[in-house]
Write a structure and sequence with these properties.
This protein is α+β, with helices and mostly antiparallel strands. The chain is globular and about 70 Å long. A hairpin with a 5-residue loop joins strand 6 and strand 7. Strands 1, 2, 3, 4, 5, 6 and 7 form a seven-stranded antiparallel sheet that branches. The chain is about 15% helix and about 30% strand. It has four helices and seven strands, in the order E-E-E-E-E-H-H-E-E-H-H.
Length: about 200
C-alpha cells in the first residue's frame, strides 16, 4: 500500500524564501549590539561590532501586509569595514532609500524639505521605520539561500503607493514629537449624535 504518508518522493520542498523582487511594506527593528562611537555619531547601543572589526546595524525587517505578513528578514546595514568604504557606502545608500520610502520622497527631490527628511538625530530614528522594500536573495554562512533587503522602493516606483497604502497622498512631513490630538481638551458634554468628538 502506497500513499502520500508512505512515499515522500513527491513531497514538495518547504522553501521559506520569498521570491526575489517581491515588494513588501516592512518595519525595521534594530537588534542592539551595544557598540557606540560618539565620534561617528553612533550612540544608544544600536551598532554591533563584529570579530573582524566591521560595524553594522543588525536589522530585523518584519513584513507588515500581504501574503508574507509577519515573515522576518534579517539583513546587516553596514556602517564600517576595515576593508574599505564600500560596505559603509552601501549601508548609507540603503538608509537613504529607507528614509525616502518611509517619508514619501522622490530620490531626485533636492528641496530643503526633502533634505531635512533625509536627516536623523540618531539610529533610534530608524528603529521602527516602515517603508517599502524590494526583497532580494543572498546566501547565509552555510551557503544556503536567504532573503535580504538591499534596496528600498521610493515614490518614483509605479507600485509604491499601492504597497505603502498611500494612494492619493503626497509627501507628509515627519510627525512632530507631540501629537496634536492628544493635546486637545476632552469634551465635557456628550458628543452630538453622528458627529465625531474631534469635530465638537
Amino acid at each position: 500500500m502506497t500513499g502520500s504518508w508512505n512515499d515522500f518522493n513527491d513531497a514538495k520542498q518547504n522553501s521559506n524564501i520569498i521570491p526575489k523582487g517581491t515588494l513588501a511594506k516592512v518595519r525595521l527593528t534594530i537588534r542592539p549590539g551595544g557598540f557606540d562611537d560618539p565620534a561617528q555619531g553612533w550612540a544608544g547601543g544600536y551598532a554591533t561590532r563584529g570579530a573582524t572589526g566591521a560595524v553594522y546595524l543588525n536589522g530585523e525587517f518584519t513584513v507588515l501586509e500581504g501574503p508574507y505578513a509577519r515573515r522576518k528578514i534579517f539583513t546587516l546595514i553596514g556602517l564600517h569595514s576595515p576593508k574599505g568604504p564600500d560596505w559603509a557606502n552601501m549601508g548609507r545608500s540603503l538608509v537613504r532609500g529607507m528614509l525616502n520610502s518611509a517619508r514619501g520622497i522622490s530620490d531626485k527631490d533636492t528641496s530643503p524639505e526633502a533634505q531635512a527628511a533625509r536627516r536623523i538625530n540618531g539610529f533610534a530614528d530608524l528603529d521602527g521605520l516602515e517603508f517599502v522594500a524590494r526583497i532580494d536573495i543572498g546566501s547565509d554562512a552555510m551557503g544556503e539561500d536567504k532573503n535580504e533587503i538591499r534596496a528600498a522602493v521610493t515614490p518614483d516606483h509605479r507600485d509604491y503607493a499601492q504597497v505603502m497604502g498611500t494612494a492619493g497622498h503626497g509627501y507628509q512631513p515627519p510627525a512632530q514629537p507631540a501629537p496634536q490630538p492628544a493635546a486637545a481638551p476632552k469634551p465635557t458634554a456628550p458628543a452630538a449624535p453622528g458627529r465625531p468628538a474631534w469635530a465638537q
